[in-house]
Amino acid sequence: MSLTLTTPYIEAPAPTLAPRERETLRHIAAGRTYLQTARHMGLSKHTVDAYLRRIRAKLNINSTAELTRLAISLGL
């Protein structure tokens, strides 16, 4: 007797990132530090840190490596 799944797996949609969050993610994934990212975007280091905290909270990501992998998968 084999078991079959009658309900297909449905992946929950990912939360939408704001344009500045996407831009911040792109810079970090490119290997820039928080300070380099802040200077490039015309922001303070604290603002960049806040954007990254929001991204991590929205996507339940804990490390920069995971952030980088996400950026690559999104084509950033």
Separation of the first and last Cα atoms = 47 Å
**Oligomeric nature of the chains:** single chain
Q: What is the molecular shape? A: globular
List SSEs in N-to-C order.
HHHH
Helicity level: 55-70%
Largest sheet: none
Structural class: mainly alpha
**Rg on CA atoms, Å:** 16 Å
Q: Which residue ranges are poorly predicted, with pLDDT under 50 across at least 5 consecutive positions?
A: 1-13
Number of strands: 0
- Beta-strand residue fraction: under 5%
Total DSSP helices: 4
Overall average residue pLDDT: 81
Could you characterize the architecture of this molecule?
This protein is mainly alpha-helical and 76 residues long. It has four helices and no strands. Helix 1 crosses helix 4. The longest helix is centred in the C-terminal third of the chain and has 15 residues. The N terminus is likely disordered.
